[in-house]
Structures are given as structure tokens and as C-alpha cells.
């Protein structure tokens, strides 16, 4: 069997990987704070007793587009938009810490602040607010609560949101959609410290930085690339069959 089949197979496999990444990006075009994942591949020349005329495709280090998405003002008290390289810290079920740029904060029935179902962390751990109270968020992450029927002068601070700072290249994305700090890129730490210098935008949400038009164009281009590689495999296989027939006749 001609080695070109394996070369084309590697290119087809890379096309499938790019299509999966592009499809995931397109599916999250409306997800708040989503960062588009980029697919990268590199050519690896085949070394052997023959001439180095073929190259395989290998996945390179994947990363994300770190450009800011559009900031949309919602007017909701618990919506926050984060600055560049800013993160909200959330607690996982196993007690570890993860990070997200989604600023759509909710309050559950027990007064616990949550983001995407995960407990939102403050300077001293998970944040809880008085039930049925009106919550406002300051630019530095300070939370203030006003009870139902209370005088406006009774406004009281109930905590401060933990704001962490890290480049997206120093984070890895988990299967749950949350980001985790890479120890090698954060001085051996997997828990980011709070950065008091960060300022958020209350009453706003950052949209996804995915361009739906570009994602659709990439999907079409990738599909055509996959189709071309499959045609190469079919052509090589047909040539091999023709060669076998000639050898049989001789």
C-alpha cells in the first residue's frame, strides 16, 4: 500500500479535529465570556530510508483567542463584566478552585451566590447574602445588601468578590468549560491570588469573542479540505488496485 494513504489520513484526521473545535466555537457564539479555541497543527517530515518527500500532521499546542468580546449593558445588579485577563473564582465539588469570565451571577434559595451552578468565591470563601435582599456590586467587587423594606441607609457590605489576574496562556480549559491555573506558568501555584487592582463593570456582561461568520467560513473550508484528503485516499487506492491487476496479468 502506498504511503501516501497514511499521509492523507493524517491530514483528514487533523481536518476532523479543526471541525470539532470550530463547531464548539460556533455553538458558544452566544455564551457570556466565552473565549474561542484555536486549532493549531504543524508538519512533521517523515524520516526514513526513502527521500523526505512526505510530511505528517501533528497537533500543536492549542490555545485560545484572548481578545475581548463585546460588553453589553444589561442593568442587572448581579451582572458583571471583567477586564482583560480578569477572572472570577468558583469552588468545585472536590474543594478545588476554578475560574471563569462569565459574569452572570445568580442567588440560590439559600442565599449562595453562584456562577453557572458553581459557588462564587470571595476573599474568605463562598459568598452568601441575606435572603430576599437587594444586592449591588461595586467596581472593586464589594457586595452590598439591602433588606426588603429597609431604609436605604441600612445598606451593608456582605463580602467582596475574588478577582484574579492571569493571562489565558497560563490557564487550561477543563471539560466542564471552566479554566484552571497551570502550575508551571503561575510560579507553581494552581490557586490564583486575589488582585485588588482589578476593576469590573457592574450591570454589564461580556459577550463571546467568536465571530459566527468566520466560524461558518472555517467550517466550509475545513469540510472541503477533508473531502480533498478523502479523494487522495481514493485515488491512491485505485492506483494500487490497477498496479495489482497489471502484476497479475504479467
Describe this structure in words.
- It is built from 2 helices and 20 strands.
- The protein is α+β, with helices and mostly antiparallel strands.
- 25% of the residues lie in helices and 28% in strands.
- The longest helix is centred in the last third of the chain and has 38 residues, at 212-249.
- It has helices at 4-27, 212-249, and strands at residues 37-38, 41-45, 55-59, 63-64, 71-73, 80-81, 86-91, 97-100, 105-107, 113-115, 118-122, 125-126, 134-137, 142-146, 156-160, 163-165, 171-173, 179-181, 201-202, 204-206.
- It folds into 2 domains: 4-66 and 209-249, no CATH class; 71-206, no CATH class.
- Strands 7, 8, 9, 10, 11, 12 and 16 form a 7-stranded antiparallel β-sheet that branches. The chain has a 3-stranded antiparallel β-sheet with strand order 13-14-15, with no helix packed on it.
Largest sheet: 7 strands, antiparallel
Q: What share of residues are in beta strands?
A: 25-35%
DSSP strand count: 20
What is the helical fraction, as a range of percent?
Answer: 10-25%
Structural class: alpha+beta
Q: What pattern of helices and strands is seen along the backbone?
A: HEEEEEEEEEEEEEEEEEEEEH
Mean of pLDDT: 88
Query: Regions with pLDDT < 50 over 5+ consecutive residues?
Result: none
Task: From the alpha carbons, calculate the radius of gyration and give it in angstroms.
Answer: 26 Å
- The gross shape turns out to be elongated
Span of the ends, CA to CA: 19 Å
Count of all domains: 2
Number of helices: 2
Amino acid at each position: 500500500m502506498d504511503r501516501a494513504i497514511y499521509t492523507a489520513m493524517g491530514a483528514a484526521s487533523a481536518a476532523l479535529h479543526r471541525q470539532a473545535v470550530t463547531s464548539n466555537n460556533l455553538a458558544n457564539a452566544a455564551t457570556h465570556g466565552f473565549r474561542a479555541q484555536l486549532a493549531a497543527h504543524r508538519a512533521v517530515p517523515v524520516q526514513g530510508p526513502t527521500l523526505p518527500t512526505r510530511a505528517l500532521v501533528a497537533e500543536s499546542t492549542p490555545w485560545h483567542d484572548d481578545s475581548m468580546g463585546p460588553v453589553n449593558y444589561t442593568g442587572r445588579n448581579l451582572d458583571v463584566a471583567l477586564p482583560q485577563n480578569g477572572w472570577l473564582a468558583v469552588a468545585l465539588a472536590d474543594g478545588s478552585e476554578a475560574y471563569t469570565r462569565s459574569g452572570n451571577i445568580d442567588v440560590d434559595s439559600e442565599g449562595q451566590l453562584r456562577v453557572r451552578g458553581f459557588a462564587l468565591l470571595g476573599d474568605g470563601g463562598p459568598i452568601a447574602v441575606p435572603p430576599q435582599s437587594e444586592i449591588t456590586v461595586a467596581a472593586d467587587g464589594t457586595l452590598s445588601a439591602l433588606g426588603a423594606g429597609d431604609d436605604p441607609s441600612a445598606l451593608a457590605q456582605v463580602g467582596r468578590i475574588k478577582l484574579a489576574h492571569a493571562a489565558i496562556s497560563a490557564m487550561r480549559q477543563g471539560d466542564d468549560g471552566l479554566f484552571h491555573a497551570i502550575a508551571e506558568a503561575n510560579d507553581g501555584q494552581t490557586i490564583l491570588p486575589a488582585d485588588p487592582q482589578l476593576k469590573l463593570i457592574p450591570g454589564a456582561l461580556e459577550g463571546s469573542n467568536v465571530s459566527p461568520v468566520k466560524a461558518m467560513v472555517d467550517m466550509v473550508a475545513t469540510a472541503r479540505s477533508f473531502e480533498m484528503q478523502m479523494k487522495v485516499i481514493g485515488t491512491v487506492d485505485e492506483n494500487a488496485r490497477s498496479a495489482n491487476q497489471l502484476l497479475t496479468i504479467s
